[in-house]
Design a protein that fits this description.
By secondary structure, this protein is mainly alpha-helical. It has helices at residues 3-24, 34-61, 66-80, 130-151, 159-178, 185-188, 218-228, 243-252, 257-284, 286-296, 300-305, 312-330, 337-351, 358-370, 374-396, 412-421, 425-447, 451-464, 468-472, 476-487, 503-519, 529-546, 554-560; strands spanning 102-103, 203-207, 211-215, 235-237, 401-403. The longest helix has 28 residues, at 34-61.
């Protein structure tokens, strides 16, 4: 092996060893609670060994200078390895200062009521320090974007590309603010599962005074954060969704998780917009990239979960990020074997953010159809599977943990094997057609008004790209996921979010449709009429996806559920 790689490996070994020694200081190793220290320390080191090298080399691939990469990784290394227990700082952890969430029923708080605009303006703030927090996010984000464009002037090669990142970031922040607390779809949707007279709600508050309402699934995710903080109690966790909680735990140890997750979710949503821009730009050019990014900036799936301290934004955004990373690392002119290892590590981290196994098939299919190096693609996916299984073995051998499966209450595999044992071609054909019909129905729920321009874009794509089949294969994991649950007779077929993972395909096709509309010469006297029509379509879509906060909750109830409720 050349001296260069040996030196890099040695540097990483030394750095991670130093990190592991400091990280031991995060935990109390006294005999009475040693099992809890091991329980937090082991997965902490596992994620560290994957995350920091992956982050460093992804930043290198994006053109970030070595000095900035080292400073950034050193700062994050200090945060994530900070020896809180050795320095006595762990006594200031939030969960040791008192309750961190409040059940409105248990505490006898006043019965919640929907918090729609314009009346909500008289009940602000929805969370403490709301105005200061969002102003700080806005200023910080704008400064970071300005600095990036100053260092990389080629990133703004067209007049509108300089303004686009600022518009997208401001739009994301505005929609996040609109959907805070009881206006968050994932908080208010359960209210409409039952008739209004039942006054049914399914949420907790993360601030005193009935502020910062979140879906009551939150304790599962908070338990995972406490796992990494060495909390000496029995916890029930979702083992396949721990990586985002590793990222959030050092920050939410001292800062209210609501603020931490709003920041993380906004950042990850912005990265998904960047990934969609990159994919659309390479496939169909700058106009398509512009409109596709604007659709992603108002993605319904992101709006549903952006104000929740949970992992769902990571699960959604991770798809576009992985697709962009695959295209960048495996493109013939950029390909190096080290890039395949980086991609495999990134896939493993994504698989430990959300159950995403169908994407292994999708990524292999895309690689084959695009002519990427299949040997290294399969090796990178095998590495992802291997790392995922290593983590499963690790987490299964830790004490004081209750591992909760993601799909609770049914087992589709049993139904599928039963169907295959009594193999009847007619039956299999019938259930396959039924699954395809159901897939089309839930696609209309998940993407509703986007489907019309996406279908138009699909007709245009055949002649606009050589990789038409590769583009379509982005939708294959969504089809596989839905078909699995449908043939397996699972209750999960009632959730259109199963197919929302096809959003990169849908939004890129929408962008292509509007790009062609903006270029169409409707009139010699008004040559820009097509452009204004395309912009109007984007504005109408933005208005539609945010109209729920003006007392139209049905928009997101029917995004979330296949069958009707009381919205």
């Amino acid at each position: 092996m050349p001296s260069g790689p040996v030196k890099k490996v040695a540097c990483w070994v030394v750095g991670l060893t130093f990190f592991s020694v400091l990280s031991a200081g995060r935990y109390d190793w006294s005999p009475a609670v040693r099992d809890f220290a091991v329980r937090g320390y082991a997965p902490h080191l596992f994620f560290t060994a994957l995350f920091f090298p992956a982050l460093y080399y992804v930043l290198a691939d994006l053109g970030v200078g070595r000095r900035w990469r080292r400073v950034g990784c050193a700062f994050l290394g200090a945060v994530y390895s900070f020896p809180n227990h050795w320095l006595g700082m762990d006594r200031y952890y939030l969960f040791r200062q008192g309750p961190t969430c409040w059940d409105w029923q248990a505490l006898g708080l006043s019965r919640p009521a929907p918090d729609w605009f314009w009346g909500a303006l008289h009940r602000l703030p929805a969370i403490p320090f709301e105005a200061s927090f969002f102003l700080l996010l806005l200023v910080t984000g704008f400064l970071a974007l300005w600095r990036w464009q100053k260092i990389h002037p080629s990133a703004a090669h067209l007049p509108w590309t300089r303004a686009l990142p600022f518009v997208v970031f401001a739009a994301i922040l505005l929609q996040t603010w609109l959907h805070l607390s009881l206006r968050s779809p994932y908080t208010y949707i359960p209210h409409y599962e039952q008739p209004a007279q039942n006054h049914y709600w399914y949420h907790d508050y993360l601030f005193k005074g009935a502020k910062g309402a979140v879906n009551r699934d939150y304790p599962f995710f908070r338990a995972a954060e406490l796992l990494f903080l060495g909390d000496p109690r029995l916890h029930a966790i979702l083992p396949g969704r721990l990586f985002p909680m590793f990222l959030s735990s050092p920050w939410s140890a001292y800062i209210n998780p609501y603020y931490v997750w709003l920041t993380f979710n906004v950042m990850v949503w912005g990265l998904a917009c960047l990934a969609i821009y990159y994919l659309a730009l390479n496939e169909f050019g700058p106009r398509c990239a512009l409109f596709s990014t604007l659709f992603m900036a108002s993605a319904q799936g992101a709006i549903v979960y952006v104000a929740q301290p949970e992992i769902h934004i990571f699960a959604i955004a991770g798809i576009a990020i992985l697709l962009a990373l695959q295209q960048r690392l495996f493109e013939a002119k950029n390909f190096r074997p080290a890039g395949a290892l980086l991609f495999g590590t990134s896939c493993a981290l994504y698989m430990l953010s959300y159950e995403s196994q169908p994407w292994l098939i999708g990524l292999a299919l895309i690689a084959w159809l695009r002519g990427f190096n299949m040997r290294w693609t399969l090796l990178s996916l095998a590495l992802a599977i291997f790392l995922n299984e290593c983590f499963a073995i690790l987490i299964n051998h830790l004490a004081q943990l209750v591992l909760v499966p993601a799909a609770v209450g049914d087992n589709p595999w049993d139904n599928i094997f039963s169907l295959l044992r009594g193999f009847h071609p007619k039956t299999i054909c019938a259930v396959s057609l039924q699954a395809l019909e159901g897939f089309c129905i839930v696609m209309t729920h998940a993407f509703n008004v986007c489907l019309a321009p996406a279908l138009c874009g699909l007709l245009l794509a055949r002649s606009a790209t050589k990789h038409w089949l590769a583009l379509l294969s982005i939708g294959v994991p969504a089809l596989l996921t839905y078909t699995f649950f449908d043939i397996g007779a699972s209750v999960y077929i009632r959730y259109p979010r199963l197919v929302y993972q096809a959003y990169p395909l849908v939004y890129i096709l929408c962008g292509l449709c509007l790009a062609r509309l903006s270029e169409y010469p409707f009139s010699l006297r008004w040559p820009r009429i097509g452009t204004w029509l395309a912009i109007l379509a984007v504005c109408l879509y933005f208005g539609w996806v945010n109209a729920d906060v003006f007392n139209h909750p049905a928009i997101y109830y029917y995004w979330f559920y296949r069958w009707g409720g009381y919205a």
